[in-house]
Amino acid sequence: MTKILQNVQMVNEQGELQTVNIAMADGKITEIGQHVTVAGAEVIEGNGLVVAPGFVDVHTHLREPGFEHKETIATGSASAAKGGFTTICAMPNTKPVPDSVENMQLINGLIKESAAIRVLPYGSLTRDISGEVRTNIEELKAHGAVAFSDDGVGIQLASTMYEQMKDAAQHDVVVVAHCEDNSLIYDGVMHEGKRNKELGLPGIPSICESVQIARDVLLAEAAGARYHVCHVSTKESVRAVRDAKAAGIRVTAEVCPHHLLLEEMDIPSDDANWKMNPPLRGIDDKDSLHAALLDGTIDCIATDHAPHTVEEKCCGMVGAPFGIVGFETAFPLLYTQFVETGKWTLKQLIDWMSVKAAQIFDLPYGTLEVGASADMILIDLNKEQTIDAEGFVSKGRNTPFNGWTAKGWPVLTIFEGNIVYQEAE
Fold it and tell me: What domains can you pick out in the chain, each with its CATH number?
């Protein structure tokens, strides 16, 4: 049956809003125009709200299988849908790890059973993400791995990374890296700067991240691999990525909303809801990330949605796990802080959260055009509300943004032509 999303404002290539109707059938967009009508079609009234392609998040943690007390595929994907995401890539730090065909098939089955939106699983680079025994990239790709990563830990042996990069290049898949030299962590729980000393907490130096990026881009060049850097957080890391791109190395990078919005001096106390990896860095690092996003050194925005239980996060930073949730707050926070203030355009923000992210992995999503998957969201740019973690769809409540007020909330999400989230009247 044909459906028509009627009377919505779409951002065109010039960044201007134009009123359109969008027709969809069989999960695809069939027509976009000012006067689209189809006899007998089901009409979804857009009420003049902004329509955007469903967001694409290339860095998420759904915790299932193995850690369902933190999140499940059902709750995580529903949380993503509420935040406007219709395609998310799930990292492999589950139990079991998707490091074999059997485990990948298990995860694919769980996704098919309970995902509210499109969930694309990563395959791990090494068995049990231990950084030692290499996985079979060809087999895992054949069974649905969108890309390959040991996210959560940096691969310490250059030889392991190099050999997997060579295999990835042969099979034209992207190697995705959490960059962290374990010898430089020093049991830190937040950035090594001024604030950690004030709070008496052990710090993680910036060099921990940037030296592994510098190593990896050279390995990627030697291997001819496509290489993507997770959650860039330091000015030195930006420099390494920028220099690698200038040298023609096939590198892309992402930044998380919290690293764009916050810096170390914003941390109010020894509160584990402010503990994430990489940690909140210095103000000069934050400024460098902004500049890198605007000049194309950083390609997209990803949430690194990482839910944990209240019990895990109720202690101080030293005893708590790293990570915060991000699906349900990403767009309104970024819209309020950067689009409303004139630092970015609405088109830039939408592109960084949709088509730019999809392009990294050659995904045919994140666009509003005829023939594309009918994945789209309605955003009320005037809707203003206070973030209340207790109202999250996600099982996770671990956010530093609880109590913040933001504008620009997704109110309806359509996935493959079907409504998967609609704000309650």
Answer: 3-50+373-422 (2.30.40.10), 55-360 (3.20.20.140)
